[in-house]
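Need a sequence for this fold. Nothing fancy.
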């Protein structure tokens, strides 16, 4: 048996999940539809946070009700063997995509602003070794690395908000896109699906964080810390740029650094980008390890390394194909997958939770 779970404390687990919430929410393809009638991004972020907290609490409470040791066992217990394995496969796909999408944004930014003379594929090759190494190292290595890097990463995430203070303009917040409340709710649900990967990965690794109850506590702390930072960051982006200027931007959070004090901090933007890339790689490796562990939980395989290696290679290939000159059919398929991401993320755990509350509570022996 080689599941590489180990044991980590609350601080390590909360740091690991909080980095994931921040990275997955901010380093994501910029949807031009968010700025059709005004900047809806900074209004949708608090809504996503308000939806995520009860959704995660519901799943964690349902797992406690059925006395499940981890998410894989909970899905099979609540939905049955076959349906539970199908739901787990959907979540595995969701975790792999959640690992790949922020790395695609990092790759595009590095190619455009740091290594313009290199090909996208050559840059993408450097993503594979850290993904494989960290995902094979297991939960304990990931958690302790996140705890060690807490303050450097937190400082590098806060620095763009501080550097951009002279450029803030309250008039950029208007007009408020309140004409279509359903569209705003849809944006909140899509934001929820982006933020859900880190707390779900914690529930997969519940044994490594001393049980589902402790995983629930760490998840709530991570959601609150990471979610509040995301809300503040989206507000700062909205204060910096008018909604018309945000439509064509690839990475608005990164552009804030380039806009602030032009010509003074010539290397600050690249330094911050590499720190964010480290945080994104750590979060992606956490999702890939959780996907591999979830696969082992529902199939009975007792070695996480082959699955972790396979999923890391899949994520690296997705990054290289999506960021490079891929075929049109691949781009269409990728757009469809991203559109279905809320369904892949929300349906399996919520259906399992509903089934768990319908069934009789199970007491621990």
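Here you go.
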């Amino acid at each position: 048996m080689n599941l590489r779970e180990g044991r980590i404390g609350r601080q390590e687990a909360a740091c690991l999940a909080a980095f994931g919430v921040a990275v997955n929410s901010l380093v994501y393809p910029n949807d031009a539809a968010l700025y059709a009638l005004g900047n809806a991004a900074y209004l949708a972020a608090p809504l996503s946070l308000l939806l995520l907290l009860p959704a995660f609490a519901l799943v964690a409470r349902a797992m406690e009700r059925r006395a499940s040791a981890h998410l894989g066992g909970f899905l099979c217990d609540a939905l049955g063997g076959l349906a539970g394995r199908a739901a787990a496969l959907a979540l595995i796909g969701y975790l792999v995509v959640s690992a790949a999408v922020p790395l695609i944004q990092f790759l595009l930014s590095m190619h455009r602003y740091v290594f313009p003379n290199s090909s996208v594929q050559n840059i993408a090759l450097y993503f594979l070794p850290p993904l494989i190494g960290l995902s094979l190292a297991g939960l304990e290595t990931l958690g302790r690395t996140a705890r060690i890097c807490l303050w450097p990463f937190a400082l590098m995430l806060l620095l763009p908000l501080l550097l951009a203070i002279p450029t803030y303009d309250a008039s950029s917040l208007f007009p408020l896109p309140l004409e279509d409340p359903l569209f705003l709710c849809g944006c909140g649900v899509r934001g929820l699906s982006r933020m859900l990967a880190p707390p779900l990965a914690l529930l997969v690794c519940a044994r490594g964080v001393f049980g589902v109850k402790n995983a629930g506590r760490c998840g709530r702390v991570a959601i609150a810390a990471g979610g509040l930072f995301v809300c503040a960051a989206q507000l700062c982006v909205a204060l910096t740029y008018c909604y018309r200027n945000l439509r064509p931007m690839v990475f608005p959070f990164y552009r804030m650094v380039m806009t602030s004090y032009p010509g003074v901090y010539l290397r600050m933007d690249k330094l911050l980008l590499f720190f964010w890339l480290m945080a994104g790689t750590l979060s992606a490796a956490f999702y890939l390890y959780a996907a591999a562990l979830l696969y082992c939980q529902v199939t009975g395989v007792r070695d996480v390394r082959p699955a972790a290696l396979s999923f890391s290679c899949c994520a690296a290939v997705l990054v290289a194909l999506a960021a490079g000159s891929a075929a049109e059919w691949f781009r269409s398929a990728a757009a469809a997958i991203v559109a279905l991401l809320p369904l892949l993320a929300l349906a399996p755990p919520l259906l399992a939770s509903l089934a768990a509350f319908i069934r009789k509570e199970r007491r621990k022996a």
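For context: The two ends are 25 Å apart (CA to CA).
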